[in-house]
Design goal:
Elements: H1 3-11, H2 19-31, H3 34-50, E1 51-53, E2 60-62, H4 71-74, E3 78-85, H5 88-97, E4 102-106, H6 124-135, E5 141-145, H7 150-170, E6 173-176, H8 192-200
Parallel strand pairs: 3-4, 3-5, 5-6
Antiparallel strand pairs: 1-2
Helix pairs in contact: 1-2, 5-8, 6-7
The protein binds zinc ion.
Length: 203
Amino acid sequence: MSNIDSLAQAFMKFPGIGTRQAKRFVYFLLAQDPHYVETLAREISALKTTITQCASCFRFYPRMGTGTICNVCIDDADSSTLMVVEKDTDFESVRRSGSYAGRYFILGGTIPVLEKDPASKIRTRELLERIEGASADGLTEIILALSANPEGDFTRDYVLKVLSPLTSQLGVNITTLGRGLSTGTELEYSDGDTLRHALKNRG
Ligand SMILES: [Zn+2]
């Protein structure tokens, strides 16, 4: 197999990338100057050593010393609310909007409708553990901030079902974002105003 084919196969693992797009990426790189390609290769190989995953919220952040908890989890954020989002880019959108001052948890994806083993698709066990730990810190509300599409709805229903025994035992409320998010919207594409509105109208 040529380097062209093997690199294209590597690109095909990227979300939403098919054979043709993967090949286009390879030919794009071949047309660039060597400096660009070297820098890109260096950035990719450094990624796993410079970035680490927070043991508390599970988002990726720049590694600092030997700590395992990110700056957002250790700063003096409001620990009475925990916002559950699907992925890192959703976390970034909410952060950027400046409309939320509490804690976060990255679910790690959504559950495809009719999935046979839903628990394996998201961080179910880790979320339960996080809630147990956070209740000692004064947690009173969990905000499910998932996308307004069929997969987001399915995931929200599953998470509600899994969490409710624990949350009712702990006296923690679960809320969901208001329908300020129009149907089909992914959280990461929502602008600041829409997010603020959806947060204000949660229930
Ligand atoms: Zn964190």
